[in-house]
Amino acid sequence: MKPSSSLSNDQKLKICHHKAANPSIKQSALANWAMQDFKLSRVPTQGTISNILAKRQQYESMDSTELTSKRQRAVKHPELDNVLANWVLQCQAHRVALSGDLIKEKARQFARQLELGERTPEFSNGWLAKFNIRHGFKAQKSYGESGSADLDAIDINMPTIKEKLQSYSLQDIYNMDEIGLFYRMAPDRTIARRQIEGSKKDKTRLTFVFAANADGSHKMEPLIIGHAQRPRAFNRKSGEQLGFYYRSNAKAWMTGLIFREWLQKMDQQMQDANRKVLLLLDNAPSHVVRDLPLTNVQVFLFTANTTSKIQPMDAGIIAAFKRRYRRFQLQDAIDRDEQQKADIYKVDQLIAMKWAKAAWNDISSKTIANCFKHTDLFERETQKNEVGSEEQDIENELKYAINQLPISRPMSVHELINPKEEQQVAHEEISDEDLIKLSLSQDQEEEEDGEVMDENPAMSTKEKLNVLHSCISFLDLSNSNHVIAHKVLRNIQFEIRTIEKKQTTLDRYFCKEY
């Protein structure tokens, strides 16, 4: 029999069980085991193994027919499944006791709102069991029962958390938080107010999820939440194809389901690295950890009204990100103003995401470590802050950029990086109506609101090389020492020429006349 290159759902489940039985096994070794054990024609990729492990609960919920299939059976009503799961998670966040009958009744209500009509399921006990297994929800019980001690995340006070921190090294203490970003916001009070009020229509707001450890040695890949799966700026590609960890819903909000996916992914990464870590979180409604089978991440939730004092992300890390993002934005606005563009703050979502990713990567480990140490979680350091000068330099650049722009009512730098509206990232309770909207957006492919891509035309190879040559000539003639910049420009020049040469060779090959 010819070896197969694809895996059945049953084989995928066996991979998950093999990983559970051998927690320290690396994904590469797991892939080699799968190829040998299942007699595959090639070794599964690391990405394939990672995706399989992340979907363990889904495979465990399948019946025998589904397990023998090589394709996962799609949920019949994904919009209903999403809205109901997010509703359950929100109830758990508020510690509302849920019975199976209550979940089924709420499902019927959502089905009517979604106008499923004849497609409405029967909502039997079997349907409920599969729904619970699919999302990892255990048998429902009152939070007043002794079972409430099963919570993986607990509210803690300051002495308790300080004591807990002592059992972890700095590199194993993480903090995560979400922020909103109006990525086209002008540094003009009048224009910004108009932009923010219209953001629901023009969809120029993104949510970013940032996480890092206490010594700054590991900044996790940011999760970006937008309004559409494939905005026009993506040119029909997915966020993953463009190199981003990207999710979407109608309001660009963090939801319970997205959070649980993110947390399980983090747990899988720590399993692969054979690390046990502590994750500090605020008590946002979407941060529901109950029933998640976490093995390598322990979650502590801050009590209400304490995050401003003890959350490291709020102690300067998010502000450092925003300074760097706004620096990209204002530098671009100055360029557009010099080119006499009509809307100097216009930028498409993909460019904004690239700026944001570069801004996050630019934050130094010293800055992150400094922010952790200057919370009430750690003893405050009395020595001079070595990182403060770096942030002050960026603030000075922002002040200079604001002064260079045609602005009638300029914002201060503090206003620019701390608009209160950006803090509203669905930390409030989501209404049933909004839950419906969030679920319906899952199949959205492109923006329908007039999102525009940058009007700058694509440059030819010759134009690119001419621009680089001009920059290099400027550096050669300047009196300053720009060795690093010179080297970077030469490397880009070499890369462009190499790609062009390969393309020319291919064109000549296919255009030969025989």
Please characterize this protein's 3D structure.
- This protein has 21 helices and 7 strands.
- The chain has 514 residues and is of the alpha/beta class.
- Helix 6 (78-93) packs across helix 19.
- Mean pLDDT is 79; it is low at 141-155 and 447-453.
> How are strands sequenced across the largest beta sheet?
1-7-6-2-3-4-5
Strand content: 5-15%
Q: Low-confidence segments, ≥5 residues, pLDDT <50?
A: 141-155, 447-453
Order of H and E elements: HHHHHHHHEHEHHEEEHEEHHHHHHHHH
Assign a percent range to the helix content. 40-55%
Q: Radius of gyration over alpha carbons?
A: 26 Å
Brief description of this entry?
It contains 21 helices and seven strands.
Descriptive key words:
8% strand; alpha/beta; globular; 514 residues
Helix-strand layout with pairing:
Layout: H1 9-21, H2 27-37, H3 46-54, H4 56-60, H5 64-68, H6 78-93, H7 100-113, H8 125-135, E1 153-156, H9 158-165, E2 173-182, H10 189-197, H11 199-202, E3 205-213, E4 223-226, E5 245-248, H12 256-272, E6 277-281, E7 297-302, H13 307-310, H14 317-338, H15 349-362, H16 365-373, H17 388-404, H18 413-417, H19 432-440, H20 461-477, H21 483-510
Parallel strand pairs: 1-7, 2-6, 4-5, 6-7
Antiparallel strand pairs: 2-3, 3-4
Helix pairs in contact: 6-7, 6-19, 14-15, 14-17, 20-21
